[in-house]
Amino acid sequence: MREENIILRAENITKKFAGVTALNQVSLDVHRAKVNVIVGENGAGKSTLMKILSGVYPEYEGTLLLNGEEVNFSSPKDAMGRGIAIIHQELNLIPYLSITANIFLGREIVDSFGMLDFKKMNQITKALLARLECNVPPNTLVAKLKVGQQQQVEIAKALLEEAKVVIMDEPTSAITDAEVEVLFRIIATLKEQQVSILYISHKLDELFRIADRFIGLRDGKMVGTIENIDQAKKEDLIRLMVGRDIKNLYVKEDLPLGEEVLRVEGISLPKHTIKSEYLVKDVSFNLRRGEVLGIFGLMGAGRTELLETIFGLHSKTMVGNIYIDGQEIKITSAMDAVANGMGLVPEDRKADGLVLQMPVFKNVSMASIDQIVKNGLLNSGLETDLAKKYISNLNIKTSSPGQKSENLSGGNQQKVVLAKWLATTPKILFLDEPTRGIDVNAKNEIYHLINNLAKEGLGVLVVSSELPEIMAICDRIIVMGASRITGVFSQKEATEDKIMNAAIL
Ligand SMILES: Nc1ncnc2c1ncn2[C@@H]1O[C@H](COP(=O)(O)OP(=O)(O)OP(=O)(O)O)[C@@H](O)[C@H]1O
Questions:
Q1: Could you tell me if the ipTM is greater than 0.95?
Q2: Is 15:57 a contact under the CB 8 Å cutoff?
């Protein structure tokens, strides 16, 4: 690669946190006007590296060169001023400001009287949004936008600063398939405009669509690159990430099923705003011990709302009946659900699953107080042992059980939420997108774990929007479309075509 085609170079970058070396002598090049993809397992150091490149962490060892010139960014603003923008997984917009106000925050245009020139700012915003195929009026409040559109606003912000390098950290984790297509077109246009992209994602299929090259990180070290994408196979990518082949990507064991553990009949959930419309409409199914039942649907199909309704989170507005072990029960809160042997691993781990400020061991034990209280006193030995067991079983990468949960990598935070619910030893487990943000190796581990839970007699209900995942791990698949059930398939009958056709009914 000729020097002028390298926009950004990292030389021997080391970053240490208390007790953890997140990056160890990492050297790599970012190629100009290419999609440079960073791959690696959970905790490999990808996000830490992106944060150094974008000025979030000004303190590190080693050297950064931008267009051959040494740089040291003191803040994200400083990096942005030098043409490096980052689009974080959790978007950073202010919901109750307009798109224009968000885009121009801190660099507002004023007219000759010193007044904010909204006309001009709206015009520029409109033009930026048009470049991104987003036709929403610039004065729309950000709170009213879908996640995909909010991401487009973040990209528009980067374009306004004429960013030369745009860093995207798992940009497709919360957007619809249609929005992913728009994002990929935007990336292609940015490349034509000589913008360089640094991209992180665990979705291997999408990476093959957009990557120009792969850079592998493992345990904080740079392990190599794949430059010749056309000839690369999925196995090559997995080897780069994990350091070995993962043979036999998981397929569910065919286990004998036990008695019915859960049955729901006629579950409906009206919308708060318009009572004649429904988020969940007349859903009935049963779940047996040892069964892994999948719920597939496109975004907005009502899958998450269905799980929440059964779990007692909408008890005031729901209708329908719930039976556990053949007995009808009324569940009016999450506490009721837990007392009746249910566990729910939610989709949004930061909002619903994890207290980020708390150490790992507290998050693990939080829903299992009865197991760690002896004679009315909390037994901290039992509490730590419980955490250690799950840290080991789920292979959670943390410097110690006492580490603050917010310091764990995204994928490892997800595993802590899973541990919290497994520790309650439920008989019915709801998993909502359990492997979002989880690397290919850990995904396999989680699939085996689900299988083992089923073997022990749990009934498992899994919501997933990844078709290959749902087809590999479930005995039976319910498809939802427009708030109702539109198809049910056994693992043997299910094909991608049949499931997709039912989902878009
Ligand atoms: N602020 C922090 N304090 C302590 N340790 C940290 C901090 N930030 C990251 N780490 C640790 O550094 C390592 C690398 O984390 P990083 O978030 O960069 O991984 P990642 O490759 O982005 O993982 P994922 O795919 O799960 O998002 C992990 O072991 C993590 O626990």
A1: yes
A2: yes
